[in-house]
Amino acid sequence: MRGASLFLRALVLGWCTLMTINTAAVADRPAGRWIGVHMLAPGPDQLPLLERAISEALAPMGVNALVFEVNYRFQFQSHPELAGANAWSKAQAGELADHCRRNGIRLIPLFNCLGHQSWAQTTFPLLAQHPELDETPSVPKDNTGIYCRSWCPLHPKVNEIVFPLLDEIVDAFKADALHVGMDEVFLIGSDDCPRCKGKDPAELFARGVNDLHRHVVEEKKLTMLMWGDRLLDAKTTGYSRWEASTNGTAPAVDRIPTDIVVCDWHYGRQDDYPSIPALQKKRFRVWPAGWRELEPTRALIASAQKHAGPRMAGYLFTVWSDAGVFMRALLKEAPPPEKPGQPEETAATMRACIEAAGGKLPETLR
What is the pTM of this model? Predict the structure, then answer.
């Protein structure tokens, strides 16, 4: 009887993996094992290369989810002034979505919310065009002294502007899920913000998450994903200030809906990763995510397997570098450079670890 039950469960999970469904309807269990790749959206001129990488590498490797970080690289109609350079059109987004679907890959667009509104000396379109939404308006325009700008989670205009952007991206990429970012938010509850000054960072962070959840999940009936670092306490987990919070946001973990898929990223080598079982215990679905170094990736996959429960989604490979170089390296189309950079290392690590994550490396990519 137990054997029959296990067979039936495996059959159901395998069937669910083949189907694109709205997993918000099954909050307690992901639909099968997700083998995912996160990628920064390249320019749309690289769409042919991306389609080849999908059909010739990612799909044959067993990848069934692509987290595609779009941010402002889209030709918004609701707010054309917020379209970044080399932006994707709705038609190009639809072509990618159709190609992913034909190859059995769930396309999940990502738009960074709250944090990551600047990089180096560049402020991204929302705060460049609407500086009144900035959490730290007195920070110099060249972003001196900060990591990344944040928008104010209490400003009444933020959601009025951002929600239509999210809707356009979801519609264009024909998505049933949306990743809202929310990682590495260091500027929150700032004394520089007249609305947030003196307020609890955890309440502010939870407010931002809950506003997004109401729109994305409750209104639009989509699955919502987010990075998990601000929900973790650095002191109790032993993680760094990048992988976990040292600025008071961690208690938000108990103030947000548990049907959110938490992408629990860790890039350093550890014997174990305590957040993986802890987040599952709090009833979140957890999608562990690693990056480019081989041994930390192997360690994180092993920890994910060790702590795999009914709320374990699978494994997510992240690519934080030039997508074109990564795709060519993954396809083994370029000769190995004398000094491999991050894209080449990421591709090599993915090839080395894909089978441990549940995929299969084709002979052509070995």
Answer: 0.91
